[in-house]
């Protein structure tokens, strides 16, 4: 869609200039707003809406005189009205100044031209369109460089009401104008107007990366001029058509008078010879029950039906006792309940429905007493409740729901009163709650959920309004809380963080606790434990580390304690114990080491005490004892020197050199 744009280096410089420009941005001056309304600039810009292949399209356009072909035309983007739309001859609904609605019939003979590459469409305005105001193109558009020019536009973002946006041209590049106007979906096709003179210099095209792109008006004029042969051909073909239009326009009052005389004659004829009789019927208390036309014994034609208390019940058209055509329905106390069209005693067509307190309840279309197609629904206090499409009395299609305080509750698509498809949901305060897809009133597929304070709460996959699939959960301060896989809101695998952003755990979970394989971290980021968990407790094979990163234990765990076979280390990385464990204590065969790495004991251990056959070594390995132990006491054995010669040695020294050391470590 976007060709002939600056290269990467120019884009980076453009973004910097745009950010700098935002800091010095001034508010839109009031006197310029007044000029806009005095010069009727706002009446030259319109919202464009139409249906094609059961899809709804909308955007912005404007009326402007093209000097090279001397025509007033509707201009917009090619991606708003494309070649297919022109060829189909659809009817385009345009809304001017948020209140004037007109229809442009593309099947009528008129000049139409579109350029997909430059992304613009031009449609001739003919007399039948009844559009009389238009913008002018800036006189210097072919020669002037508009970089740093102050501009503004009037646009219809998201297909809603018109708004004024102002900014600057920050770069002029080939046929592209890079600008800083605040735009949104639906702003495509709005005119870029210079503040000094209120004349057109370009058309807003769309957003590209971090900035907005417009089409330079001079290039559009040149492109239209180059296709002048086609334009002249269209003019020749439609010459007689336009002559007929001008003739009808010139003598329209005479033609209207003739039509009026003919219609009046027909009405007088049927009035003189009609079979309907005007009658007045009464209640038993002599108050009027019905005053109007009848056919036989049935209400037929125009007539007024009264309540027995004398107040009007219905005033309008009838067809054989059924309300048919236009009519007004009243409550017994005299307030209007419905003002609109009827068909066979049912509300059908355009109409206004009112609450008993007199406030408007609905303004739109009915079909067989049910709200259909499009309308505005109101709360009983007068505030708007819903604006959008209906089907069989239910919200269906595109629509906006409001809270009673006037704030938007939901803006998106509906299916039988349920949010379905893409939509934005809001808190009652007006802050956004959810941006994403819905499925039958439930958050679905993928979306973003927000805190009411404005920060993101969750960004990821959803199903049935629950976190399901890959996603990121955030603390309200903006730090990531959980990043990984969810099932029905349960975090089952991924990374868990503290509120200050520190990684605490990475692995599998159950009920928000480590369960399965995972890594536990110290607050400073070093690994604390790597292995398997059950319900948040180390269980199975695992490796435990000191905070300095050295290995502390490597083996098996049971309910959080060392068990079966494992190796324990000093904080300096040397071995302390290698052998069997039971419930966190040395038990069975094992080896105990001194801090310097020399072996201390090799033999049987019973829950932390030397018990059974074993070999005890002095710390310097100069002597050793081979024999039997009972609760850390030597029972029977022999001392040897380091050359395995039997020697005599005081057992008391064993106790001082081993027991204190063992207990301290």
Describe this structure in words.
There is one protein chain. 15% of the residues lie in helices and 52% in strands. It contains eight helices and 45 strands. Among the domains are: 221 residues, Thrombin, subunit H (Beta Barrel), CATH 2.40.10; 34 residues; 91 residues, Histone H3 K4-specific methyltransferase SET7/9 N-terminal domain, CATH 2.20.110. It has 665 residues and is mainly beta. The chain has a 32-stranded antiparallel sheet, with helices on one face. Strands 5-4-1-2-3-7-6 form a seven-stranded antiparallel sheet. The relative contact order is 0.04. About 2% of the residues have low confidence. The two termini are 72 Å apart. It is elongated and about 145 Å long. The longest helix has 22 residues.
Descriptive keywords:
Thrombin, subunit H, Histone H3 K4-specific methyltransferase SET7/9 N-terminal domain, 32-stranded antiparallel sheet
CATH class of one domain: Mainly Beta
Query: In the CATH hierarchy, what is the architecture of one domain at level 2?
Result: Beta Barrel
| Major sheet summary line | 32 strands, antiparallel
Integer-rounded radius of gyration: 42 Å
User: What proportion of the residues form beta strands (DSSP E)?
Assistant: over 45%
Structural class, by secondary structure, is mainly beta
Number of helices: 8
Provide mean pLDDT, rounded: 84
* Uncertain segments: 18-27
Give the N-to-C terminal Cα separation.
72 Å
The best one-word shape is elongated
């Amino acid at each position: 869609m976007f060709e002939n744009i600056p290269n990467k280096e120019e884009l980076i410089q453009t973004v910097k200039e745009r950010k700098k420009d935002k800091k010095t941005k001034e508010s839109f001056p009031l006197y310029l707003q007044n000029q806009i309304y005095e010069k009727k600039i706002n009446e030259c810009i319109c919202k464009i809406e139409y249906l094609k292949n059961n899809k709804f399209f909308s955007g912005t356009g404007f009326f402007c005189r093209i000097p090279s072909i001397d025509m007033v035309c509707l201009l917009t983007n090619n991606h708003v009205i494309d070649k297919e739309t022109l060829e189909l001859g659809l009817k385009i609904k345009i809304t001017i100044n948020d209140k004037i609605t007109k229809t442009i019939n593309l099947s009528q003979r008129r000049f139409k031209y579109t350029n997909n590459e430059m992304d613009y469409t031009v449609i001739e305005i003919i007399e039948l369109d009844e559009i009389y105001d238009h913008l002018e193109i800036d006189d210097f558009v072919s020669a002037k460089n508009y970089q740093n020019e102050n501009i503004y536009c009037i646009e219809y973002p998201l297909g809603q009401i018109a708004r004024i946006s102002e900014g600057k041209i920050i770069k002029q590049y080939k046929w592209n104008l890079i600008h800083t106007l605040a735009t949104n979906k639906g702003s495509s096709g709005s005119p870029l107007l210079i503040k000094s003179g209120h004349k057109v210099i370009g058309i807003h095209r769309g957003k590209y990366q971090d900035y907005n792109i417009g089409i330079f008006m001079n290039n559009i004029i040149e492109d239209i001029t180059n296709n002048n042969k086609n334009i002249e051909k269209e003019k020749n073909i439609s010459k007689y058509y336009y002559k007929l239009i001008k003739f009808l326009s010139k003598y329209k009052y005479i033609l209207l008078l003739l039509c009026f005389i003919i219609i009046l004659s027909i009405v007088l004829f049927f009035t003189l010879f009609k079979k309907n009789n005007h009658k007045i019927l009464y209640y038993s208390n002599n108050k009027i029950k019905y005053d109007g036309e009848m056919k036989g014994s049935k209400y037929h034609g125009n007539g007024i039906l009264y309540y027995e208390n004398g107040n009007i019940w219905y005033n309008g058209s009838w067809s054989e006792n059924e309300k048919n055509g236009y009519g007004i329905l009243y409550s017994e106390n005299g307030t209007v309940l419905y003002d609109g069209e009827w068909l066979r005693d049912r509300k059908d067509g355009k109409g206004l429905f009112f609450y008993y307190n007199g406030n408007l309840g609905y303004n739109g279309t009915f079909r067989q007493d049910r709200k259909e197609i499009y309308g505005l629904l109101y709360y009983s206090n007068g505030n708007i409740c819903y604006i959008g499409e209906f089907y069989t009395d239910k919200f269906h299609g595109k629509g906006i729901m409001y809270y009673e305080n006037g704030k938007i509750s939901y803006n998106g698509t509906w299916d039988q009163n349920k949010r379905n498809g893409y939509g934005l949901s809001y808190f009652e305060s007006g802050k956004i709650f959810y941006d994403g897809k819905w499925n039958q009133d439930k958050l679905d597929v993928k979306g973003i959920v927000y805190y009411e304070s404005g920060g993101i709460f969750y960004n990821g996959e959803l199903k049935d309004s629950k976190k399901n699939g890959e996603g990121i959960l955030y603390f309200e301060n903006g730090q990531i809380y959980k990043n990984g896989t969810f099932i029905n809101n349960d975090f089952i695998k991924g990374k868990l963080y503290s509120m200050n952003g520190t990684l605490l755990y990475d692995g599998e979970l159950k009920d928000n606790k480590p369960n399965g394989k995972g890594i536990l971290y110290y607050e400073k980021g070093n690994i604390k434990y790597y292995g398997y968990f059950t319900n948040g407790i180390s269980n199975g094979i695992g490796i435990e580390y000191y905070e300095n990163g050295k290995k502390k234990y490597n083996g098996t765990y049971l309910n959080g304690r060392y068990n079966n076979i494992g190796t324990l280390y000093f904080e300096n990385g040397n071995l302390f114990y290698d052998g069997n464990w039971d419930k966190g204590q040395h038990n069975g065969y094992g080896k105990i080491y001194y801090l310097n790495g020399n072996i201390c004991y090799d033999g049987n251990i019973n829950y932390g005490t030397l018990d059974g056959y074993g070999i005890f070594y002095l710390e310097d390995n100069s002597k050793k004892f081979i024999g039997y132990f009972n609760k850390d006491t030597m029972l029977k054995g022999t001392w040897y020197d380091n050359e395995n010669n039997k020697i005599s040695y005081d057992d008391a020294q064993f106790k001082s050199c081993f027991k204190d050391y063992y207990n301290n470590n």
